[in-house]
Amino acid sequence: MQMGQNILNSSSMPSSFLLMATPGLEDPYAWISIPLCLLFLTSFVGNGLVLLVISQEVRLHQPMYLFLSMLAITDLLFSLSTSPSVLGVYWFNSRKVRSQLCLFQMFLMHSLSVIESALLVAMAFDRFVAICHPLRYTAILTNPAVGKMGLASAIRGTLIHLPPVASLKLLPYCHGNALSHSYCLHQDVMKLACEGTNIFNITYGLAVIICTVTLDLVLIVLSYLLIIRAVLSITSETERYKSFNTCVSHLCAVFLFYVPMVALSMIHRFGIDVPPLFTSFMANLYLFAPPMLNPIIYSIKSKQIRRGFYKFFHPTRETPLNP
What global pTM score does this model have? Predict the structure, then answer.
């Protein structure tokens, strides 16, 4: 009976949504906007430099670094798609966002997340072939093959999120227009629809998670189980360390991407009762951690990237052996 009453009192999608941010910390938003702006700038500069170095350094035109450049492009687009609304809320207290722009931002964010997940799988496969089948590495992972894998990741991420985002426009809404974060998430908008009218989005959303993020994570874990078995079979301790050390950057990227993403998805999808500040923290971690830290981690761990940076900033000097 209550469900029927809610549907009777429903309306079409609101013309605009109200973005929220950090509950209880509204007064110092202007101060909070300063470190957030620095985080976005760090992401833009870091990923931009990685792209410049890889594009200009011919020696880096290898599968591992081509995948890294794709990851940098994805992270750069992710930051560009979220920074206007986030900085608008914290900087200018501009909370309203038109529903069309909200849906577009939502589509970009979720599509780019699925693309990044696929790229992390491709990078795990790259490490698997390099360590377990080094003699066949150049034959398996040719540059055209890498390009096709990147294209397939982009197509999958784009097409899989068109139906649920488009279907949100057709739902009746009973729960106002206030969202939980400073950007638009599918699960967040979905909760505003009337009870019993959102079966497609709930079912499809779970299917997407299982077929993309969950499957990708399983493939990454399987790749590393095979890598660990191959590394343990190496007799030299020094060689074992060198082999596994090439995977550290990728493992950090996997951790930074999946932990906040899965935690935030579970909070919204299953209604886990957690403090609002923790939800806001996970939302910001999901927003900032991968785009900002990925270029830093790869720059620290990769000698080739460090040499590329040194050559980029000191073009007239000879590149030292250990810059």
Answer: 0.89
Quote the CA–CA distance of 87 and 35 in Å, as a whole number: 11
DSSP class of residue 18 equals E
Tokens 């993403």, residue?
261
Distance from C-alpha of 221 to C-alpha of 247, rounded to nearest angstrom: 13
pLDDT tens per residue, range 265-304: 777 666 556 777 777 778 888 888 899 999 999 888 888 8
Q: Check the CA dihedral 191-192-195-201 and report its sign.
A: negative
pLDDT in tens, 4-26: 445 445 578 888 999 887 766 66
Cβ 17 vs Cβ 78: under 8 Å = no
Q: Which domains does the chain have, with CATH numbers?
A: 2-313 (1.20.1070.10)
Alpha helices (runs of H) in the chain, residue ranges in sequence order: 2-8, 29-56, 63-92, 99-132, 137-140, 143-160, 162-167, 186-190, 199-209, 215-232, 237-245, 248-270, 276-301, 303-313
Per the listing, tokens 């990741």 go with 153
Amino acid in position 37: C
Q: Are 268 and 191 in contact (CB under 8 A)?
A: yes
Residue 316 has pLDDT above 80, yes or no: no
Torsion of the alpha carbons at 28, 32, 37 and 39, rounded to the nearest 10: 180
Half-sphere CA count of 6, side-chain side, radius 13 A:
15
CA distance 74 to 309: 20
Q: How far is CA 237 from CA 17, 158, 234, in A?
A: 57, 44, 7
The full DSSP string for 178-199 is: B-SSSS--HHHHHTTBPTTS-H
Burial class (CB within 10 angstroms; exposed 0-12, middle 13-18, buried 19+) of 237: exposed
CA gyration radius for the chain? 22
Q: How far is 192 from 205, CA to CA, in rounded Å?
A: 16
Give CA–CA dist 88/97, Å, rounded.
Answer: 10
